[in-house]
Amino acid sequence: MSAPSMTKFILKRPWLKRWMIPISKWYADAAGYRKLGLRVDDLIPEESETVMLALKRLPPKEAYDRVFRLRRAFQCSLSHQLLPKDQQTKPEEDYLYLTPIIKQIEQESRERGDLDSMVVNRKKKDKL
Fold first, then answer.
1. How far apart are CA 73 and CA 33, in angstroms?
2. CA distances from 8 to 13, 16, 17, 115 (A)
3. What is the pLDDT, as a whole number, of residue 2?
4. d(CA 29, CA 52)
5. Which of 33, 105, 114, 126 fits as disulfide partner to 38, beta carbons 3.0 to 4.6 Å?
6. How far apart are the C-alpha atoms of 43 and 101, rounded to whole Å?
7. Are the C-beta atoms of residues 106 and 48 closer than 8 Å to each other?
8. Average pLDDT in the chain
9. Residue 83 in contact with residue 36, Cβ under 8 Å?
10. Are 108 and 54 in contact (CB under 8 A)?
């Protein structure tokens, strides 16, 4: 699920961070999903088993809000209109709500895989 990221590389270099933050804000605004009332995690495709499990772990209110945002955006897309400014997602409202759950599930999966592939060697008893 997770793609390679240059985030750590950029954040370690303050000059690069100062240069990239305005570009990232411009790109997020130019992407247009906020104008349809969506958040960044609403754009994650649901085909993956990990994402499906993360959606099941969402609190009921957050899951309902997600479905509402997706349906409203679909309706706006069909009518070729954008939401009014007061209903569009503001940058401070656009936070990651699904990604932390996905990362937790991936970590649990890696841990489960490590534990399943673990080989236990028992000490042989010495006969005296």
1. 8
2. 9, 11, 10, 28
3. 57
4. 27
5. 33
6. 15
7. no
8. 90
9. yes
10. no
